[in-house]
């Protein structure tokens, strides 16, 4: 598989696959979600299953040419809607989920249900984002701007595993994963840096397979080979990171929103750890971001 370096290339790749993925969207009646779904239908890589609140198709006649690729299951109760959507996935009738106007708490209650949910025992839930910026010549993945406040060592290991899986799905055979701190020095004052040193050593010993993992490193040296050379840092990342693992949610969330507003980056994100991708976009994300999140879920989902 050719490496995917842009969102345009991602959508082209999905078109070439000629395989529609079925997305169960819960109360997808807001304009940005409808924009994303319609664009996905037009691009030909999704079928849409509306669950819960159903759009007024009289006002959204752009969906009429795609009625053969749309199913509807109207429901009033948010918990019932979320549970039904999860059941569709468990029964093999949907490939992944998307959040519309349903409250995140209602959705996650169904997703995380120990008996009827989508999180396999032992897995953790985390969010992986990907950005396309004018300053970098490839997509940049990063975790976790929304779910885990301060990852434990075990949670960080899962974040690394999921990030490798996502990068592989995008055709990156040997992803370079940089473990982000404000300095490249290891200090017990910052427990994450100790975890980073251990993960880097494990990578050198081959524990993580075909992946290059190193840190602590800062963001600039992770993506700028000249900055790494000027600072005299020797790292197999070599200023060409494919993915960044942040120390905590605050740092990752600030990075996500800074890229979006000041960097005008195109971004997408999905929940990982579940048996299928879950698109849970921020309320501030626009229709384009939600569309790219759909495309990300479609390529990552099996």
Automatic annotation (TrEMBL):
InterPro entries: P_Ac_Bu_trans, Phos_Acetyltrans/Butyryltrans, PTA_PTB. SUPFAM superfamilies: Isocitrate/Isopropylmalate dehydrogenase-like. Keywords: Acyltransferase, Transferase. Residues 80-298 form the Phosphate acetyl/butaryl transferase domain. The keyword Transmembrane does not apply. GO terms for molecular function: acyltransferase activity. It comes from the Bacteria. Transmembrane segments: none annotated. It holds the Pfam family PTA_PTB. Belongs to the phosphate acetyltransferase and butyryltransferase family. This is Phosphate butyryltransferase. It comes from Pseudoprevotella muciniphila.
């Amino acid at each position: 598989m050719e490496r995917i370096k842009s969102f345009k290339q991602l959508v082209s790749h999905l078109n070439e696959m000629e395989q529609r993925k079925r997305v169960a969207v819960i109360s997808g009646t807001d304009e940005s979600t409808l924009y994303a779904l319609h664009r996905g239908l037009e691009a030909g890589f999704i079928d849409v299953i509306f669950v819960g609140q159903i759009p007024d198709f009289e006002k959204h006649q752009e969906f009429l040419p795609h009625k053969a690729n749309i199913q509807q299951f109207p429901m009033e109760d948010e918990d019932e809607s979320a549970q039904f959507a999860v059941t569709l996935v468990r029964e093999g009738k949907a490939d992944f989920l998307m959040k519309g106007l349903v409250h995140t708490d209602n959705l996650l209650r169904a997703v995380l249900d120990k008996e009827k949910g989508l999180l396999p025992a032992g897995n953790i839930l985390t969010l992986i984002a990907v950005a396309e910026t004018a300053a970098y010549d490839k997509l940049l993945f990063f975790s976790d701007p929304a779910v885990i406040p301060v990852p434990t060592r075990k949670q960080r290991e899962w974040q690394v595993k999921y990030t490798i899986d996502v990068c592989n799905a995008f055709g990156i055979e040997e992803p370079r994963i940089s473990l982000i701190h404000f300095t490249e020095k290891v200090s017990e004052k910052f427990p994450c840096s100790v975890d980073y040193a251990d993960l880097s050593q494990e990578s050198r010993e081959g524990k993580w397979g075909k992946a290059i993992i190193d840190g602590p490193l800062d963001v600039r040296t992770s993506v700028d080979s000249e900055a790494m050379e000027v600072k005299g840092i020797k790292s197999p990342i070599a200023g060409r990171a494919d993915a960044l693992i942040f120390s905590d949610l605050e740092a990752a969330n600030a990075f996500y929103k800074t890229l979006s507003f000041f960097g005008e980056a195109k971004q997408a994100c999905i929940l990982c750890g579940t048996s299928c991708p879950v698109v849970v976009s921020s309320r501030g994300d626009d229709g384009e971001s939600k569309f790219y999140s759909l495309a990300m879920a479609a390529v990552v989902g099996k």
